[in-house]
Amino acid sequence: METLGIDIVPESERTAKPSDLFWPWFAANISVFGISYGSFVLWFGLSFWQGALVAALGVTFSFFLCGLIAVAGKRGSAPTMVLSRAAFGVNGQKVPGIVSWLTSIGWETFLAIMAVLATTTVIRELGGNPGTGTKVVATVIVASLIVAASVLGYHTIIKMQSVLTWLTGAVTVLYMLLTIPRIDWAAVSAVPAGSAGDVVGALVMVMTGFGLGWINIAADWSRYQRRDTPDSAIIFWNTFGGAIAPAILVVFGLLLAASDESLADAIADDPIGALAVVLPTWVLVPFLITAVLSLVSGAVLGIYSSGLTLLTLGINIPAQQQPRSTACSLPPAPSGWCSSPRASSARSSPS
Question: Is the pLDDT of residue 163 over 80?
Fold first, then answer.
C-alpha cells in the first residue's frame, strides 16, 4: 500500500520504466465507451472519412499533450497540482486545484453512471426487470470497486491496470468481431461531408473527451520515473498507451453508427448499454463485466489523483483515506466511507 503523499518521490523509489506508463493509460481508455464516440462525432454532421481523420488527429494529439505534462512529472517527481505551484504559487495554485478536483469528480461520477446504466440494460436484455433498487446496488458495487482499487496506491494500480488491459482488450476485440457484419459500407459511404466548422467542433470534442480530459493528472503517473529517463520515451509511452485504443474504437464506432441510425440514436440515451443490445445473449455477461471494469479502470486514475489534489488544497488526509474521502462525492456513497478521517500531515510516514 502506498504511503507517500504529495512530497517529492525519493530517488530510491523512482524505479518505474517508461513502458510502465502504457498500462494505466491503455487500460483506462480501452473502454467500449470509445465506440460510442463514433456516434458523437457523426452528430456534428461529418462524413466517415472526416470523422476518421478527426479521431486519429484529435485522440493522438491530445494524449501527446498529456505526454508533455508527464515529462514535468518525471523531472519534478511530484503530482501535477504540486508542480503547478511553480506557475501559480502555493496559494494561487488552489484555484486550478479546485477546478482540477471538480473535473476529476465529475469524470468519476460520469463513468460510474455509465457503468450503472450498462448494468441495467444488460439485465433487461437477459429478461430481468431492473428497478431503482437494482440501480442503487449497482452504484454501490461500482463505487466500491473504484475505491478498493484506488486506496492501495500507485504500484498496485499499475499492476491492476496491466491485468485489466488484457482482459478488457480481449473482450473489446471480441465485440468488434461480433459486430463487424453489421457494417453497411453503402450506408457509410452515403453519409454527407460536413463543413470546416463542423470538423473543428468535432475535433475539439474528441480532444476534450480523451487526452485533454486527463491532462490535469498526467504528471501524477510519471513521478516514479527516473530523472535520467529520456523525455521522448515518456512522451511516446504516454501517447501510445492513451491513444492507440480509442483512436481505433472511435473509427469503428463511426462505421457502426453510420451503418445503423437506430443504434446511433440509442447511444444518445445509454452510450454503453446500447452497444450491448446488438450482441448475442451468450456474450452479454462477459460484455457487462468488461464494460464495468474498463469504466472502473478509468475512474481509478481520477479518484487516486483527486486525493492528491485534496492535499495540495491544504486538506490533510492520510494517503490511505484520500480515495475514500473523494468517493463521498459519488452518488450514492456508502455512509461508512464518509466518517471523518483522522487528520494528519500532508506528508505520510512510511509504515
Answer: yes
